[in-house]
Amino acid sequence: MTDSPVFFCGIGGSGMLPLASIVRASGRKVSGSDRSLDAGRTAPKFAYLQSLGIQLFPQDGSGLKDGMTLVTSAAVEDTIPDVVRARELSLPHQTRPQFLAELLNEAQRSVAVGGTSGKSTVTGMIGWILHALHRQPTVMNGAVMKNFVTPSAPFASALVGDPELFVSEVDESDGSIALYRPEVAVVTNISLDHKELAELRSLFGAFLLRARKAVINLDDPETRALADVVPADTSLGYGFDSPSADFMGKNLELLANGVRFTVIANGECSNVELRTPGRHNASNALAALAAVSALGVPLSDGAAALARFDGLRRRLETVGTVSGVTVIDDFAHNPDKVDATMATLRAQPGRLLLMFQPHGFGPLAKMGDELADSLVGGMGPDDKLFLPNPVYHGGTVDRSRGSDWLAAAIKKAGREAIHLPERAAIGDALIAEARNGDRIVIMGARDDTLSEFARDLVERLEARN
């Protein structure tokens, strides 16, 4: 990889911001643009990027100069001015995954974490264990890791350390998982999300076969099937329900603010206590412990470090509690993630006041029936669900299936769902409805302003009281 200046188009994206910060920390000159910056949204994020010495430009082509490399996110079209200008200047142009894959593949030691759900949390857990044990990893994540947040680094979705020990979340949504050749490959689960299952099986299977060690969730039927094609001497299976697991979880206790369980591996036994709730997070911890073991970390050391793992932003994150009403911010957006979130919430008492913002019209067309089933299955008879319009940033996507359709499907199944197109009206309804013992849960992806919405609800509850 050259040392040329890098221009990130879409630099505020969840996968772009941490990558830009890692590249900037390496000493290279970094600049970028973002349509959210032009629209005046999420100003603190862009102020943080500027604090790193990253220059920001309008997304009009003015920031591109001779000698630069252009890196674009998946959300960037070939027709926008930045890309057009880069073509005019004959600049090298890479996608975000292509650029990230070069960094990971060049590292002496690397861990790549894939799967439909849980990959950000597992990446954060691996990064934290290695950091806590003074291994100085570089970590590239798609979510803010709360252990690394400081006043000067409020958007800590990256950890800059030794570039030769590289840990990264990797994505299958665009097929780019085929670019990565990690030392350790982790697959947490496989379910309906961006692609059909047949294609996902092929992508994840090849991903595991390219690694020196493959860490596989044996509790998930789809990933368990992949374990059959991975050579036994390169495979590390984990799970609570699979007798053949190399990392076996036992005695799982689901607590209000965490989980407790025992891990048996390599003839050793260690107790794990997590501050992050839910069975899915216990499974994530098993994945992280198996991955770091492939890097030589003893089980007892990994388990002890996990007790100090604070989790990720927007992963069942409690934003605040006012007069017995708790506001929770969560990233759940596909059926698998909604199932995990709802199961964790339902394990504790209290009525749920939910807002679910679909992350696009395309996902509703692809998995709307499954989303409806997940929401219905997780809701109790007294719970209420509010649905704003889906995230939409323009384009020609088919908008025939929207939130009104999803609300009708959920009501038909016997649960209360209300479509209110504008979020402001939903905020008013949630504040009017909330009472002592309720939990307000804000769910959705591809929209940084959801967290601002959740914080605003806490402030409104405080003002109400």
Task: Provide a concise account of the structure shown.
This protein is α/β, with parallel strands linked by helices. The protein is built from 15 helices and 21 strands. The N and C termini lie far apart (57 Å).
Structural class: alpha/beta
Q: How many strands appear in the DSSP assignment?
A: 21
From the alpha carbons, calculate the radius of gyration and give it in angstroms.
22 Å
- Stretches with pLDDT under 50, minimum 5 residues: none
Global morphology: globular
Beginning-to-end CA distance, first to last residue: 57 Å
Instruction: Indicate the proportion of strand residues.
Output: 15-25%
Query: What characterizes the major β-sheet?
Result: 10 strands, mixed
Mean pLDDT: 93
Number of helices: 15
Spatial strand arrangement across the major sheet:
8-7-9-6-10-11-12-13-14-15
Overview of this structure, please?
By secondary structure, the chain is an alpha/beta fold. 36% of the residues lie in helices and 23% in strands. The chain is built from 15 helices and 21 strands. It has helices at residues 16-25, 35-38, 43-51, 81-88, 96-106, 119-132, 197-209, 221-227, 279-293, 299-306, 335-346, 361-378, 403-412, 423-433, 449-464; strands at 6-9, 30-33, 55-57, 69-72, 93-95, 109-114, 137-140, 158-159, 162-169, 184-187, 213-217, 235-239, 247-255, 258-265, 268-274, 317-322, 325-330, 352-357, 384-387, 416-419, 439-444. Strands 8-7-9-6-10-11-12-13-14-15 form a 10-stranded mixed beta sheet, with helices on both faces. A 6-stranded mixed beta sheet has the order 16-17-21-18-19-20. A hairpin with a 2-residue loop joins strand 14 (258-265) and strand 15. Helix 6 (119-132) crosses helix 10 (299-306), helix 9 runs antiparallel to helix 10 and helix 12 (361-378) packs parallel to helix 13 (403-412). The longest helix has 18 residues, at 361-378. The chain is globular, with a radius of gyration of 22 Å. The model has no long low-confidence stretch (mean pLDDT 93).
